[in-house]
């Protein structure tokens, strides 16, 4: 029966498969403590192996201090030139070439080089590649270096030949600024396709096969719909314009007028074509008009003509009814006057007494 918490944890961890040699007072590393140990094993080492456990947790701080000391010594060599070796110079030249290769938008001139060097001195940074890349990104975003947008594929008519200063850099979009301040490489066809949205891919040359496959099914339906709409527009036009002569010449003129102006066949376009061009009128005679005038009546003329015709018909019917009523009255009077004596209404006629 374990007497202490440490003994209980040791027995439990051994039962779980932890090797007994790991549960001893030994040297530990920061990686082992933070990523490989379970919470109960960490608790055991914190209790029984406390000195090595705390030293392992302090390793990153110690390494950071060592790195800062190295950076300070390296910056001192860079700033003063004391102890600057040919190896350091070669490394600096290699970093500058890499910056020039990966940031083509940054113009390679003395003013930009001096700006990068001054930023490194102000920040007390040794000219390693990460520090130089940070300097380029910071200065380009602030407009402190001259940029050439066409070097990364940005059209010149968007920002001009060069971008310099806070005002000009403020006009640059976020996407274009990111393109100029990140390591640039020529995109392959695969990278270009991956960067596209669905709409851009469909409209690009890569989406031609997809468009053709879709149009195989969509085009007939679209053409059928357009044909129905055109037929409805023509039917409406012919109904609304009764003075339009349905001749081949008039049809060709309307179609030519629409084609010259690249207009679809709609109600408005047909009416506009009919109103702006001289078309032949149908030669039809109006009833009741002289023979010499051969024009089709207007709608209001048709209405007046129909009204007059209806009135004439009503007058004739009234005359017929009056004639019928008059004839019936004369017939009744004639029958009463000629009826035999002793006749009573509702009874049969009787002959005279014998």
Describe the structure concisely.
With 354 residues, this protein is an all-alpha fold. The chain has helices at residues 5-15, 30-36, 39-48, 50-57, 59-80, 86-102, 110-123, 129-141, 156-159, 166-170, 174-181, 189-194, 198-203, 208-240, 248-260, 267-276, 299-337.
Polypeptide structure, described:
Helix 3 crosses helix 4. The protein has 17 helices and no strands. With 354 residues, it is mainly alpha-helical. The protein has helices at 5-15, 30-36, 39-48, 50-57, 59-80, 86-102, 110-123, 129-141, 156-159, 166-170, 174-181, 189-194, 198-203, 208-240, 248-260, 267-276, 299-337. Helix content is 64%, strand content 0%. Mean pLDDT is 76; it is low at 289-298 and 347-354. Among the domains are: 5-57, no CATH class; 84-185, no CATH class; 210-276, no CATH class.
Could you outline the blueprint of secondary structure elements for this entry?
Elements: H1 5-15, H2 30-36, H3 39-48, H4 50-57, H5 59-80, H6 86-102, H7 110-123, H8 129-141, H9 156-159, H10 166-170, H11 174-181, H12 189-194, H13 198-203, H14 208-240, H15 248-260, H16 267-276, H17 299-337
Helix pairs in contact: 1-3, 2-4, 3-4, 6-8, 7-8
